[in-house]
Design a protein that fits this description.
Elements: E1 4-8, H1 12-24, E2 28-33, H2 36-46, E3 50-54, H3 62-72, E4 77-82, H4 87-96, E5 100-103, H5 108-119, E6 124-125, H6 127-137, H7 147-150, H8 154-164, H9 169-176, H10 180-194, H11 199-209
Parallel strand pairs: 1-2, 1-3, 3-4, 4-5, 5-6
Helix pairs in contact: 2-3, 3-4, 4-6, 8-10, 8-11, 9-10, 10-11
Amino acid sequence: MTIRLLLADDHRMLREGLRRSMTDQGFDVVGEARDGDEAIQLAEELVPDVVLMDITMPEVDGVEATRHIRQAMPEVRIVMLTMHADQEVLAAAIRAGASGYLVKDCSTTEIASAVRMAASGETALSPQLAASMLDEVRKLDQQPGPEEERIITKREEEVLQLIADGCSTGEVAERLFISQKTVKNHLASIYQKLDARDRTQAVLQAVRMGIVRLD
């Protein structure tokens, strides 16, 4: 199934270049937005599978647009593009619900891979951003909620650790000898207990709490 992709960037030349390269990679580019406000509108109209979102845009920036889109349409995945590995912006993107984080000097192949990972429910992160993310994770939300609302079971911990290791739902099921439906049920329970919207936020929260590790 072809992935439907929405591009959001205030630079016309970059949008045109992304459209050509992403089309060549086999994606269906369904629309282009010039700013965050237009990205929100087009996402609501077109309901793409993934939005490739620039962070720095006029009017409504990429982080705020991501927050709006994810709240209105949780099924739409968003990959952020940034010029610099800024910890503060990265943390804001994480909290807004982005599924991928790339610097703009990455290759077309890396962008295509990140979009595919996002569409399949996985998380993509530029190597340049990895160190920044890990530093920021340790600073996020230093006040945990009541302990009884945060505890996850041993099996849920195993599921979450495998997700943090980059395993897909199918791979987790295979390694733990359980069904994919059971994995999804465990993830739903984890999201509720960790107050997370998706696996990205669940992993980040679990790392902060010392439940899982990122190697």
